[in-house]
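My current task is to audit a protein record that another person submitted. My question to you is simply how this chain folds and whether the tokens agree. This is what I was given:
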Amino acid sequence: MDSRDQVNEGLFNRSQMARYLGISERKLSTMVSLRQIPVIRLGKCVRFDPVKVRVALSKYEIDEI
């Protein structure tokens, strides 16, 4: 089963979120700094809710022509 099909309960760290989305950690950091995806900051730790990230990214989907 692909990790994209299976959303675990809980929060993802930076490397888990990048792997889940199929992007590099650097690209993920860029998206965070541009506020394109929601992030949860716990002190110096950064965590992501995969469900909320998918919802946030859905606004960037392009419909068929």
About this structure: Confidence is low (pLDDT under 50) at residues 1-6. The longest strand covers residues 40-42.
